[in-house]
Amino acid sequence: MDPSRPEATHVAVKDGRIQSVGTASEFAGLPVDRRFAEAVILPGFVEGHAHVMEGTLWKYTYVGAGERRNPAGQKVAGLASIDAVIARLAQAHHADPGESVLVGWGFDPLHIDGARLTRRDLDRISPERPIVVFHASLHIIVANSRVLELTGFTSETAI
Asked: Is 144 exposed, middle or buried (0-12, 13-18, 19+ CB in 10 A)?
């Protein structure tokens, strides 16, 4: 975890918490507990709500209502309307007009007076390119008509 000290042979623990890591000489004179002498101890990280995924999401276009900072530390303004969401997605589309799926993320209608994003809104950006927008919860996706066409999803599709 520390590039200047990639490996340690001893760990100082107080009240169940690691206080320091180092070598035998750094801990000379302290009591020794050999229960883990033949083991490898790794730091534990608990990420119970998958916020780590946001790092991956920044590859795509942020369309949420709240201002955020991207991984480079730059402020990305929040969007207050469906038209602003469409404008940001259209800007991303024109900056990279390829055939890959255009992805937006962070949308939450509760933060823009309950306005609903629809496939018709996304069709305004491009009727040919597949476009999806992930809700801020990542449990809901809005897709344009091209995505529905490519997936074979119609009003007759049984869910």
From this structure: buried
